[in-house]
């Protein structure tokens, strides 16, 4: 579904060039859940923006569904770290925004929007304004907005990182459910090793800047998975330990930055 | 609500007390009852002049708002135009517009025209400046959202940028309406043939200080009522605005 071949991205700034990504090769199969993990500033958001068609690569090819990505596509949905809801629109109207932007009529999608909201526990909140909701609830609205157009690809940039620990776990559980139900191909950027192991089929670990794929770990634990006590604690611990080592590994060929 | 009322009552009490205790004469500083008496001596006249000031203010403010919003939207439609003209606007905004009041009389005569024009001039710039500020402060993530949804320029403008700017537009309206009243009065003082500004000029030449105070009280009321009408409109239309500014 997604193919990245030799993808690099360099930003030209006044204070010199910043090489954010170098030579990324990655493929994500249809319906697969790929987590991307790495230090801040290693180019994770840049990677997603390349996939979303918000940014062209300086080198290499980015294919989604077999065609080169040149601009944002309707079947690719994006979810950010912040909910980015329109504060003057009700929860329901926010969820229906993509339908409107794509020139569709809202009425036929209204029922689906309500179902999505109900599924993430926002049944009584359709008419509320975003500021009346907690951060976790707002992020759930953003999730529903991403899902309203039934995207083939779901791109998520640290979507839970601004939330408290309990809310994160709850939302990660709901995302797992959504993924099991509708199976969008998902690329999920996160800082949290636990989240990656809970959700992903594979975890790509990026090196420090310039971001390169250091390793791709397959998480072979049956779903549904859970954070708490479960039958696969040993497997979870192995994956977590391996990812922790990879993230803290300083022997890897990345330049040291002394500032 | 109770505290400001108590504060206002205390201030009026202090003023009244001072005039009584020090025996200040009414043509120098009238006590509140003198002002009420002055109003009751000729209510029809004072209300007619209030009405004159109100219509000048509202006409000028209406034109200023329409022109201000239109210009701000045109300026921000193109990034380059905005960058080229915004500093000029800020500079023009800092000119004290009331200084041209006598010139307007020369150019436009003694009727309501120079008054309305001064009101337009004085409330136009703050409305443009705050609207432009609002239209150029769209958060990056909302911009990116619009782009990721392949929103057209029009959709981005009318569904995201413009609504986002509305709280700032109201900042401009609130500033503008207070200035509009000032503009009307200054214009009336420089060609005193109608309005509360004219009442103040006439009462000054006949040393009728209570009448001047009655006019000033009416002006203050006018200004306060107009200001809070806009505040009420904002609360009604933009219940979300205070949540973002917090
Ligand atoms: N538009 C841009 N212009 C210049 N530099 C950028 C831009 N976007 C990102 N960068 C730089 O690229 C690097 C990677 O950024 P980003 O992809 O946001 O990292 P991450 O999401 O992993 O924290 C950072 O050093 C950042 O400063
Ligand atoms: Mg990032």
How would you describe what is shown here?
The complex is a heterodimer of chains A (259) and B (246). Chain A is of the alpha/beta class. In chain A, helix 7 (193-199) packs across helix 8. Chain A has a six-stranded mixed β-sheet with strand order 6-7-8-3-9-10, sandwiched between helices. Chain A has helices at 44-52, 91-95, 97-101, 107-119, 135-147, 165-182, 193-199, 233-248, and strands at residues 2-13, 16-28, 33-37, 59-64, 67-68, 76-79, 153-157, 185-190, 202-206, 213-218. Chain A has two domains: 1-75 and 152-259, P-loop containing nucleotide triphosphate hydrolases (Rossmann fold); 84-150. The mean pLDDT of chain A is 89. In chain B, helix 9 packs antiparallel against helix 10 (209-237). Chain B has a single domain (31-236), classed as MetI-like (MetI-like fold). Helix content of chain B is 83%, strand content 0%. Chain B has helices spanning 2-21, 32-41, 43-77, 79-93, 101-108, 113-135, 140-148, 153-190, 195-205, 209-237, 241-245. By secondary structure, chain B is mostly helical. The longest helix of chain B has 38 residues, at 153-190. The A-B interface holds A 52, 54, 71-74, 77-78, 80, 82, 84, 86-88, 97-98, 100-102, 129-131 and B 139, 141-142, 144-151, 155, 159-160, 163, 166, 238-240, 243-244. The complex binds adenosine-5'-diphosphate (ADP) and magnesium ion (MG). Adenosine-5'-diphosphate binds at residues 11, 13, 18, 20, 38, 40-46, 209 of chain A. Chain A: GO terms for molecular function: ATP binding; ATP hydrolysis activity. Chain A: It holds the Pfam family ABC_tran. Chain A: This is ABC transporter ATP-binding protein. Chain A: Keywords: ATP-binding, Nucleotide-binding, Transport. Chain A: Residues 2-233 form the ABC transporter domain.
